[in-house]
Give the backbone structure.
Amino acid sequence: DSLLQETMNILRRVLVSPSLTTSIRFTSTTSEGQIKPKTAILMLNMGGPRNSEEVEGFLTNLFADRDIIRLPVQNKLGPWIAKRRTPSIIEKYNEIGGGSPIYDWTSKQGAMMCKRLDELCPESAPHKAYVGFRYAKPLAEEALEQLEADGVEHVVAFSQYPQYSCTTTGSSMNQIYRYYQQNYPLKTPGPRGPDGVSWSVIDRWPTHPLLIKTFAQNIMKELETFPEHVRSKVVLLFSAHSVPQYVMNRGDPYPAEVGATVQLVMQELGWCNPYRLVWQSKVGPLPWLEPGTENTIKALVKKGQKNLMLIPIAFVNDHIETLHELDIEYAQDIGKEVGAERIGRCAAPNCDPTFIECLADIVSTHLKTGETVKPQMLMTCPMCTEQTCKNAKMWWAKATGYLEAQQKKAKATSS
């Protein structure tokens, strides 16, 4: 048995057939008989409860996250708010089928993306997507345990938020940092790590041409459903998840990056319709980014602009913010209340073929260029005073090998 195993190990490395000029490649398998992945694509997002039993846990995790919500005595007030809000949130999920579809969409996107990556990047194949949510199952911690058990060689932490914010992508990156600090305090993944697993990060992609094309195509499809005589007058409301104003005051890049996406989509459309960028999903009494989507709808209809389209410009798949907040609360309920003629909604990217190609192109380019992490992600906001944020960014600089590479460059320059 040991001789056979050693022989197979040699064959796996490389076997050249005398009659062929190409190498025959062997792929390792796991104990369950599945193909062992070489490259893990860790797909990071907020997540959502898949059923009513998961709602309170989801809300508890959300209100415990100080990267997005700051509360006095948060460890006590957060769970209290979560428990109080659970019944009303369950009702909303029941209206859209009983739970969030974000896990199903993310899993499908990941599987389709990896199939394409195996074609585009055979040198880093097989690729496997791991879903890692911030507040719902499967949490990023579970995904990290799984990819380590699978014995992958490289991990790409791939944010599914196209536009970066400390409250979204930043929070997920902090989550991964805390996982290793709490469970393996002496272990930093990366070039100097004991396991030899390398890491890299894709933290934002707000201007990718295929993302822009996906939204532009979906907007045109939805515009076609409006009567021809009002089509050019439909106001396009690009609706993104709002964030607290104090986050923006620190210098968070989120509104600028959402704005960049909007501008490029409108350019792709030839500036065909009037448009505005608005903000949804505010929570609590503190000031958040404005104007709010709801108040904008009311104001526009009052001014006589009664045909509108809602565009979820910061979301890559459907979940409660699109299916309930945009479709039911705004398009139906508010629309009826204020007397709108029609409020349409542009489809989210979901598994649109153009969008899947977008995801695959982002990752394949990242892998082929050997990118580790962009300097932009490693810089804290100008007015940030959070030591945890600074520690996490330094950890990522080490884990991706970026810091070591910069030190080598500096040494080479000085010599």
In short: The first strand starts at residue 15 and ends at 16. The radius of gyration is 23 Å. The first helix runs from residue 2 to 13. The CA atoms of residues 141 and 183 lie 10 Å apart.
